[in-house]
Amino acid sequence: MDEHPALVVIGHVESPLTEPSLAPRQGSEGAPDAWLVFRDAVRDGLRELSVGDEIIVLTWLHRAARDTLRVHPRDDLSRPLTGVFSTRSADRPNPIGLHPVRILEVEDGVRFQVRGMEAVDGTPIVDVKPVIRASGT
Amino acid sequence: MDEHPALVVIGHVESPLTEPSLAPRQGSEGAPDAWLVFRDAVRDGLRELSVGDEIIVLTWLHRAARDTLRVHPRDDLSRPLTGVFSTRSADRPNPIGLHPVRILEVEDGVRFQVRGMEAVDGTPIVDVKPVIRASGT
Question: CB count, 10 Å around CB of A90?
């Protein structure tokens, strides 16, 4: 079995956030609106997404430290060192970000404005999933 | 920027489910209990996880078809073809599975029995995150 599966980048985040140290920790903590800009190659997969939809965007947090296994949660040194799998730290072996956001606007089928995205400008996007409701898809 | 980031496999699922076509679509649809078995190399990152914790397990659905962009949701041919990013289909450019589960038992710091895991036996694990509550970590 392949022990190093390779991701493909399907798009990027366009955001006024450029400095990771200034970005909010979670989208609910004052993150600005941002654009998800997808590659034309995945256009057919996006066609049913529309304004108002709640989605989970999966990103690759490319600036993270992948050899980190213990952190002070939220960089608060008064909190004890904690295993990364009990935190939402970006620093972890596979720095995949999960971002629940709502679609505000769609342009040209591959540009989606969303509310509450805390990833910095240029962050690679690797997947989008619907928020599961009772009916399930 | 690296357009093909490589994941590292941090563990595997041990489950009585061996046949993808017989696995439930979501963990809430009758999935059996399973074991998450992690590599010793990530032990330090797991230390604070304990029985009763609700976590999100991220897997690499290694049997998926990565060139699929449109599917009939839940393989129901009566439902129209839909973009994969509006569905939870495993077939998608980056087949990352999200599995919300609860920890039932911990053995030796690297084996975690969980409830409601629909991934088949041998599925690679790539990350674990806490379910975010109001306080946030």
Answer: 22
pLDDT < 50 positions in chain A: 134-137
Going from the C-alpha of A77 to that of each of A3, A62, A124, B66, B95, the distances in angstroms are 34, 24, 29, 42, 36
Rounded CA separation B66/B70 (Å)? 11
The rounded Cα B69 to chain-centroid distance in angstroms is: 20
B45, amino acid identity: G
Q: What is the pTM of this model?
A: 0.92
| DSSP bridge pairs for B50 | none
Read off the DSSP letter of residue B102.
E
Closest CA in chain B for residue A96? B127
* Residue % of chain B over a pLDDT of 70: 89
Joined tokens for residue B7? 């994941």
Q: Taking CB atoms and an 8 Å limit, are B85 and A25 in contact across chains?
A: no
A44 contacts in chain B (CB < 8 Å): 69-70, 83
Which of B83, B133, B94, B105 shows the shortest CA–CA distance to B36?
A: B105
Chain-chain contact of A128 with B70 (C-beta, under 8 angstroms): no
| B51 close to B30: Cβ distance less than 8 angstroms | no
Residue B60 near chain A (CB below 8 Å): yes
Q: Do A137 and B94 touch (CB under 8 A)?
A: no
Among residues B102, B122, B120, B117, the alpha carbon closest in space to that of B53 is found at B102
